[in-house]
Amino acid sequence: MNSLAKITIEAHGGLDRWKQFEKVSADLVQGGVLWQVKGKAGVLDKTNVTVGLRTEWASHSPFGANTRRSRFGPDRVAIEAADGTVLEELKNPRQSFAGHTLQTPWNDLQLAYFAGCAMWTYLNIPFVLARPGVVCEELSPWNENGESWRRLEVNFPKDIATHSSRQTLYIDASGFVRRHDYDVEIAGNTPGAHYMDAYVDVSGIKFPSVQRIFARQADGTINRDPLVVSIDLSNIQLG
Fold it and tell me: pLDDT tens across 13-72, in order?
């Protein structure tokens, strides 16, 4: 494993500690303009999210009105009733985004895919760096707001469903991930810069409880207006 990846994983609690758990859940409050742009304002403003740590899956409950919940996996996404009855499902869901741009609206299953894929990625960072097939390379440092952050380019294998095959982590002097860049392939390769803050300790593992996503420019700078997505996590639990 890349040496910077090892430092980052250790700073967040260490791989041995991480392997003691199978899933993480959190109460989730979301905002930002993305949900309105996609025609899904309000659906996931306030919910609970659970993601797998050993295999890639995620669920949001409730998913919109009533007691529906989502079930995301790389090859299938579904909307279920509270008792697990499948209400809607879509196999090979990533193919359904062909030709999409940032302005293309989503249906419920596409929302469930994006939300599941995104939250699985966020809640598994940086431990995802230790997964088979993930390749990391350190880049030149980046200076922002008077701080110097080390950068780690991450290349994901095809069997991991995430924003893009190539992503960049920005890591501070304490080993914490402070920024995460990616291009959202299923939304026309829209470039994003995802900031992490307010780390909390949960059973020995560090999670950023406040996360904000902005549009990223070609030179790596960001536009802070509008706020694309806000993510606030509370009641984080490992199990």
Answer: 999 999 999 999 999 999 999 999 999 999 999 999 999 999 999 999 999 977 999 999
pTM of the model: 0.97
In order of 44, 62, 83, 172, the CA distances from 68 in angstroms are 12, 5, 9, 39
Domain span at 205: 3-238
Count other Cβ atoms within 10 Å, centred on residue 234.
Answer: 10
Does residue 93 contact residue 113 with C-beta atoms inside 8 Å? yes
Phi and psi at residue 42, to the nearest 5°: 90, -20
Reported as a pLDDT band with limits 50, 70 and 90, residue 219 is very high
What is the full DSSP assignment across 42-72?
TTTSEEEEEEESSS--EEEES-SSTT-EEEE
Residue 28: give its domain's CATH number: 2.50.20.10
Task: Write down the residue that tokens 């299923």 correspond to.
Answer: 186
DSSP state of 21: -
Q: 143 is written with which tokens? A: 């200076």
- Write down the residue that tokens 């949001």 correspond to: 60
